[in-house]
Amino acid sequence: MKPKATAPTVMPQMNPFSFRHLFIGLAMLAAAIFAVAMKPTQSAGNRPRIDLETMIPRAFGSWKAEQTIAPFLVPPELRASLDRIYDQTLARTYINASGESIMLSIAYGGDQSDSLQLHLPEGCYRGQGFAVGEKTEGFMNTALGDIPVARLIATKGQRNEPITYWIVIGRRVTAEGWGMKKAKLLYALKGQVPDGVLMRISSITPDVGRAYRLQRDFAEDLLAALPPVQRERLTGALGN
Q: I want to staple 44 with a disulfide (CB 3.0 to 4.6 A). Which of 20, 29, 182, 194 is the partner?
């Protein structure tokens, strides 16, 4: 007798539409779990918050804060936005023994999570109607260490303002947006929320080379006047 033929097994087919929705659902679930796991839960290093007004001396080296010269002014609408981001800001104009002036601006934010982050100066200057030239990045060599900095020139009418700035996230110092994001991610992997400092030094002059040399001298004098613990808050752990 011939064996009885059996009908071929028919595998059920998944509706491509259902498969796509299943894949999307699993991806959303994985993203949600990752977000919860990565959510920072504590401040980085539990460091005390700083008081810029008392921390930054009004006189050091050959520099003295000048009360009669107004620093960079911020319009009310931009000021309201910055106040939501930063816990403290400090803006002063310093003059040296030769009559040369430097504008110092420091912004401090105790919470550098994804929802709050330092704003780079080029955006703030453009918001003020300045034309901002191409940014260059490099190192500012000081006797206390080499600081990664960004430099750019902002112009408005006859005003030519060379600018040097750097960013400190926790104990990591950087000069650009990707470095800031990378530092925040490294802290997030530890479940920590770092604080952040934006240091900006500028001067109004057509002599760009002289401006950057003067800004370096100013930064070196300022940092030398601070105790090591306070200096680290403004420069991070240089070399690490």
A: 194
Q: What angle do CA 148, 152, 153 make, to 5 degrees?
A: 155
Q: What is the pLDDT of residues 185-239, one digit of tens each?
A: 888 888 888 888 999 999 999 999 999 999 999 999 999 999 999 999 999 877 5
CA atoms of 6 and 62, how far apart (whole Å): 99
**Structural contact between residues 173 and 149, judged by C-beta atoms closer than 8 angstroms:** no
Residue-range domains of the chain with CATH: 44-235 (3.40.1000)
CA dist list (Å): 18 to 14, 26, 46, 212: 7, 12, 48, 62
Long-range own/partner contacts, residues 209-218 (CB < 8 A, 24 or more apart):
211/162, 212/151, 212/162, 212/164, 214/100, 214/102, 215/102, 215/140, 215/162, 215/164, 216/140, 216/141, 216/142, 216/164, 218/63, 218/94, 218/96, 218/102, 218/104
Sequence-distant (≥ 6) Cβ neighbours of residue 110 within 8 angstroms: 43, 49, 87, 195
pTM comes to 0.75
